[in-house]
Amino acid sequence: MIDTTVLNREISAGRTALSSSDEAILPLGVRRRIWAAMQDPDDDDATYRRRVELAILCVKRVQHIWDRGFPGDAGVSEMLTLAQELVNEQADPEQAEWRAETFLDNVLDSVSSFDAIVQPATFVADAASRTVISACYRNPDYDTADPETDDDELLPDSLEPSYSCASAAAGALNWQPIEETDVEARREFWTWYLDEAIPQVLAE
């Protein structure tokens, strides 16, 4: 059973961290404490399903950015379908992980210019790929066992899906100059994440 007192405290701490950040950053360390509080010690499968569903919701939130950068390309939708198939044990994890890595490699290899339209779309592709890879591992501690507290410590090739989605919304990663960043879009994304996405996942 989830300790809702602890969870609410961690979500409240997340809101405080977000509101106090001029760059609208919700740090990885703060998110990891929320994820740890979302774990149900009596139901590993439910914990796993919530983790993947939260990542799927994040990708769907910014999927329009992918569609704008890669019109007519169903790659992200295919990744989300694959992630759900993994949750339902309808796909082979080893094959799925290969497909996810190949998808992202192909996207990046296809780009000749990382402009203001295409670069955020590649962040969505990264998030979709990482969502599938996360879904390959039913370990309930998958997101919380590592020590990093800064998303940019995970560069260049293991970004967490919600961060990639927030970066797609903002048009920039956390380390990029604030003048190149849509700070309000990043804040809107993280506010939605805390106030809507997490409650939705917990209610299912």
What does this structure look like?
With 204 residues, the protein is mostly helical. It has one domain. It contains nine helices and no strands. Helix 3 (44-61) packs parallel to helix 8, helix 3 runs antiparallel to helix 9 and helix 6 runs antiparallel to helix 7. The longest helix is centred in the last third of the chain and has 21 residues, at 183-203. The radius of gyration is 16 Å and the shape is globular. The two termini are 14 Å apart. The relative contact order is 0.17. The mean pLDDT is 95.
Q: Can I get a quick summary?
A:
The protein is mainly α. The protein has nine helices and no strands.
Record the SSE blueprint:
Elements: H1 4-19, H2 28-38, H3 44-61, H4 63-69, H5 75-87, H6 93-110, H7 118-135, H8 161-170, H9 183-203
Helix pairs in contact: 1-2, 1-9, 3-5, 3-7, 3-8, 3-9, 4-7, 5-6, 5-7, 6-7, 7-8, 8-9
Which characteristics define this entry?
204 residues, mainly alpha, 9 helices, 0% strand, globular, Imm5, Immunity protein imm5
Mean pLDDT across residues: 95
So what's the overall shape? Answer: globular
Number of helices: 9
Q: Strand tally, please?
A: 0
Amount of beta strand: under 5%
Protein name: Immunity protein imm5
Domain Immunity protein Imm5: 11-199
